[in-house]
Structure formats: C-alpha cells, structure tokens
C-alpha cells in the first residue's frame, strides 16, 4: 500500500511560525526516510494556527532539503489565481526538483471572507469558471493548446523535462467528474467530508477520459490518523487537534494546545458530542489497529494510495505516529 502525507504546517502554542515551518521540513525529511510516496502542503489563508499560506514557497525549502520524495500542493486554490502563473510556479519547482512535483488543485476559499476578498474580489465568479481554469492550466503544463488558441505561442517558463503531475482535490461528485473529464489524478478528502466517498470515486473511475494512451485513473484517499504504542496514547495525541478545532469554533485564535491543556479544556455537553463525532471520522490506535483500518478503507474506497494528515502538539509525536504506521505497513 502506498502511503503519503498531507501537512498543513500547524503552529503549536509553544512554537513560532518559523519553528512550525521548520518542523514541516523535518517531517518531510522523516517521510522520505520512512518511504512515504509524496508530501503535500495545504494552502490556507488567515487561519490562526496554520503557517501554510504559500505552499509554493515552503515546497522550495522542502525540496532543497530532501532528495527523492514527491512534493506538491494539497491544494493550490485555483479560483484565487490565473492558471498561467500557477503553471510558471510549478514548472519552476519541477525544473529545480526534476520528476518530483505534483500540483494539486482545489476550489475552496481556504480562509475567511475577508481573506478571500483580499486575494480575489471575483472569487465566486472564478469558482463557476473552475472547469475552464483547470483546462487552461493543463494546456499550459502540457504545452498542448490548439494552434488557433490565443495562448498557443505562450510558454510557462522555465519548461521542465518532466512536467508537474496535476491532481484535482475534492469531496464531491462534481470534483470527481471534473477530474475524470480532464484525465487527471483525483484525491478525495475523506477527512473533511460527510459524503459517501466510495460512490464518488466509482463515478470518477467510470467516467475517466484519457488525455493520452499512458494516462490511467489514479486515486488517493486522504484520512486523519493518529498512531502510538498504546491506544490510550494515540487518543491523547489526537486530543490536541480535536480541542484545537473546537476552540477555533468558539473563535479563540490560538495554536495547537498541549495534551495537558487539551485534557483540562472545559467542554459543554454539545461540544462533547461534537468531539465524539469528530473522532468517528479519524483513525486512532496502535500500529496494528491503524493498519487494519487503513486496509479496510483502501478496499472500501478502491484507491491506489492513502494520504495521512496528523496534527499534534509535539512534532516528535507526529513523526513517531508516521513512523509506527510506515513500519507496520512495511513489515507485516
């Protein structure tokens, strides 16, 4: 089973943003050593506790400090930008780090309404234009505009020997069909979805259209997972992320709390119910427990790869979680 990592560059309460970004780079180094397939960085704007506003910048940092692991965006929020600029940025990365770059595309705003307006005052219109934006980006990446197109002679330089691999990220049938229509690889965000992902992925496979003979359907599933030597410890390290989510819902702007702070955080009855609901959308346990659940999900969703997102207070707990999962999958 292929395993990969999605990182959001979370900032713990005891960290500066610089330290959080350094921790993301060290996590990518650990992922490479542990045999993970790819390491993606999310894009978020004006969200307290996250340092991932410009994934293309940190990818340069990560690429320069790793050697072979695939790196990419998870995702570039395309409605904020012009496809030509995204093609230039990711072609530049693919030139610097040959045959290692993925460009994951999404259409969410990725932040507050104010941040969305500051980035692009035509965001909603661009969301409606998402199919044409995706098509234009693909033409720039593959250099295959029709000869009579207005951009036919325009190059997104520098042109790498191996183009970035485009992925479409989503949680809906609409995103799956858009990926299928354009012959793109598809990443389904199960960790942030209540939709029936297996049916959506089936629609993607059924409707996939090859851009060229070598293209075939490719799907990964993104899940939230926490692993430790004991089930109790796994629940402890997951609690920081859970309480952080609840505190953000209250409008409390702060970083990821420590396990001790999370245990002492006062919860209403409604918030306790919310916490249990959130847990049901996570994988939490020992290596064998996590492995069993990952295999179940791989089979249930019919995917080629599972991408894991893990947010902990301690960078060491996060790396250890990924280490235990990789070892269990590899050795058993």
Automatic annotation (TrEMBL):
<dbReference type="GO" id="GO:0016705">
    <property type="term" value="F:oxidoreductase activity, acting on paired donors, with incorporation or reduction of molecular oxygen"/>
</dbReference>
<dbReference type="InterPro" id="IPR050766">
    <property type="entry name" value="Bact_Lucif_Oxidored"/>
</dbReference>
<feature type="domain" description="Luciferase-like">
    <location>
        <begin position="1"/>
        <end position="299"/>
    </location>
</feature>
<protein>
    <submittedName>
        <fullName>LLM class flavin-dependent oxidoreductase</fullName>
    </submittedName>
</protein>
<dbReference type="GO" id="GO:0005829">
    <property type="term" value="C:cytosol"/>
</dbReference>
<comment type="similarity">
    <text>To bacterial alkanal monooxygenase alpha and beta chains.</text>
</comment>
<dbReference type="InterPro" id="IPR011251">
    <property type="entry name" value="Luciferase-like_dom"/>
</dbReference>
<dbReference type="InterPro" id="IPR019949">
    <property type="entry name" value="CmoO-like"/>
</dbReference>
<dbReference type="Pfam" id="PF00296">
    <property type="entry name" value="Bac_luciferase"/>
</dbReference>
<dbReference type="InterPro" id="IPR036661">
    <property type="entry name" value="Luciferase-like_sf"/>
</dbReference>
